[in-house]
Amino acid sequence: MKKIILTFALATFLFSCEDFIDVNELQSNNPSANIINPSLSLAGAINNYTSNQVISFNSFGNEMAYIWALNSGFTSASSRITYNFTSSDEAGLFQTTYLNADNFQDILDSESNFPDYSYHFAIAKLFKVMSMDLLVTTYGDVPYSQAFKSDVTRPKYDDDAAIIPALFAELDEARDYINNPSANVIALGNEDIVFNGDTAKWLKLINTVELRMLLRLSNTTNASLITLRNQRFSSLPIDFVDENVTSNPGYGIATLGQRNPIFRTWGLNAALDAWSSPNRANAAGSFCAKLLLGQLNTPTVVNTGLTDPRRPRIYSGTTFTNQGTFPTTEVARVASFFTGRTGSGADVANNAASNRDAYLMLAAESHFLQAEAIQRGYMTGSAQSKFNDGINASFDFYNDYSFTDLPNGTLNAATYITNSNSKLGLGWSATPNKISCIIHQKYIALAQWNGYEVYVDHLRTGFPALPLPDGVNTVTNRPKRMIYPSSEYSTNATNVPTITLPEIFTVNAKTPVYLQ
Asked: What is the pLDDT of residues 113-142, one digit of tens each?
């Protein structure tokens, strides 16, 4: 698939940090990529993955999960609000993710030339798995066994039920690279732009990624995957992420390409004299806004009168619009906390936003994953304690001491936990279905930061019970998968499955096994 990948190599080049050689150009267009020292390509590969996650997958999830809607003055025929998906929509989710996965595979392929880079190979394994997990969750059957072979130009599509066990095996290999490194292992240096060489933290992230993947199988009816899920949980190391996982290759303000990916996409333009078009186009989606403002009274959430103190750091105001509706007046946009542009003056704010870390995983997600696993009986412990830990971690995140001029002062998690405890869908005591309150609180904690995960949660659990966009009346639910991109139908037509529009809305043989 490497030769096919070359046709869309430019997609991720646009999102690369200029402090590093663009690894997609370095590797994908280089037939001798396996002779590149892993320390030279690891940072660039991680940076490209990060940009894809926090921009492409995040924006897709935020719009599909009713966190973002369109603001006044912007009209669009976006399939995210019409649901008229075609093979021309969301192509980057497929193409760029394969490109990123191939970058990590190139690092792994260099092992015979650089056998002492065990820690680098562990990280490459992890990110390759994370990339493939995104693809399997979004599309189901995808190329895997032949996808990274340079002599295969038209790789076969593998059954996702067969890919998933292989991904868990690759996670085991990642752990083994760290726990049993080569005798003369090369230490991680500045190229580790996530944990600065702390391999213990990398093991925690591997465990947490596995936890996330195992919970994707919570409702599967596939007997072999049920057995696999239970076996993996019985041996899963109980040592998970307990801090926000960030990435920073050396973001800076000098050029647009060097800035933090959120700020360069949803902050100011290159000249730093106007908001970007995506910033002005995105508005507060009605479901998320009502959840934060205490305005929901539904069969699954009754939170009337409970205003979430995190709201001013999520949205810039209290007005909102329905997804698919184009308001005649401007409504609330993303708050400055999201873009990172906070401080005493324009120069201070712009520098803070440009240099800010990008977030690969929030600590809150780790705690909510553990709460769900315990509640489902997969792990032991107190689900309520981990639930509260998730809320506390979210409040800690929004109380980030490195930011100044934060609206509303210091936010009090204990008061919120007490006040929300009596609210159906948000409080532990008031919600009979504990999975419901876990997922709703996770939705709030991850809103805007990892919209993709909250969208997948909706697809696999039914929570939150999201309304459909205005104007969509031919289906009763959101799509459970995406259609393969047109590039696959033109270059790999003999292998790519044919997916019709109606098929993406129903559970059928082509639905990702994670979501069946």
From this structure: 999 999 999 999 999 999 999 999 999 999
